[in-house]
Design a protein that fits this description.
The complex is a heterodimer of chains A (263) and B (111). Chain A contains 7 helices and 12 strands. With 263 residues, chain A is α+β, with helices and mostly antiparallel strands. In chain A, the strands form 5 sheets. In chain A, strands 1-10-5 form a 3-stranded antiparallel β-sheet, with no helix packed on it. Chain A has a 3-stranded antiparallel β-sheet with strand order 4-9-6. The longest helix of chain A is centred in the last third of the chain and has 24 residues. In chain B, the strands form 2 sheets. A 5-stranded mixed β-sheet of chain B has the order 1-8-7-3-4, with no helix packed on it. A 3-stranded antiparallel β-sheet of chain B has the order 2-6-5, with no helix packed on it. Classes of the chains: A alpha+beta (263), B mainly beta (111). Chains A and B meet through helix 1 of A and strand 7 and strand 8 of B.
Chain lengths: 263, 111
Amino acid sequence: MGNITNVSSVLLDLGLSASVTDEQRAIANQALKRAESSVKRFLGYDPLQSTRTEYYPQMVSSLNAFSGIWDISGDQAVFESSTSANELQLKGLPIRSITNLYIDHNGRNGTQTDSFSASTEQTEGTDFWPNYDMIDSDGNKVCNDGLLKRAGAWPTNPGTIKIVYISGYTRDELHGQDSVIDAGLIAEVIVDEAVQKAKSVFVKMKQSVGFVAGPLTSERMGDYSYTLAASAVDRLFSGVNDMLPSSKDKLRDFINYGYSLNS
Amino acid sequence: MSLLYAYKETGYTTDITILDADGDTITPDSNDKVKAIIYRTGETAKLTVTSGTPTTNGSSITIGAVQRLRLDASDLDFEAGVYTLEILFYDYSDSQELKMVSKQVFCLEDS
């Protein structure tokens, strides 16, 4: 069962809303689940609004990693690579709010005892601020590019920043029912993909009981031969997690390119 | 299973027959309950109607050999779109078990 959209939308698009069997409903549900998974994987994040806890930076930058400066943080000397920047790209888009942000140079991704204690918490507006660029229909700030800015440079050592934040789109936004933010294309693609996957399964089921309309365009008995419809075959035998090119095109505006290029 | 089509802020009435595994009609008795829920997966239900307990606006389910589901115009004021209508049967005689009757596609259109 999907989370972003509803199996009823899939059944309606399949033309099965007036008479669906339990088996067809089960296939549609499974197709919806896989379609949502494909979309999340393609985007690189879950578009449904939720609270996330993540550790940053998530990679070691080898470029100029051995040049930089020594800085003081509390009672520690900290080496800051020259690759450090005053912008940090978060994984989830768009950022709706930052609940907590900690910087602990000895945090070790939260595995160190007492790491990321209250004393390491940073203050929004003073120590850091999201690159807010609009106000949503509830009057709250929204940061569409997922960038966090800092007065100084962000640490470069992986796992030294812990962030608890809320990101993603509301259900109204995902269903195109919000007056300010329209993320309806995401739900539309999920339904399209689920319909496509369900149809593939239905065609395979039909094929297993003999020749019926499907990828076979012709069949002859004497000197047995058959012809396959190329486009249908491509879809039928492509990986079940693949997405249609048209779906990928629709989702391009929602991809977190900044995170993809930095990870 | 059927497609139910309604318009926003316009009343809607439909009859629901509950069948057992043999295809025989089930007639709920006075202790049984029939419930209808309009929702989307993961979201708070838009409307819940239970037999014997009409909503404030008057949406109701009248039980009998045929269950009459009446959705009042004032209760159909949520966003237009495609939803699932779930029909549940609370069977008092069978250890008060809650049973799934059917899930139907419910389309609400702007009137």
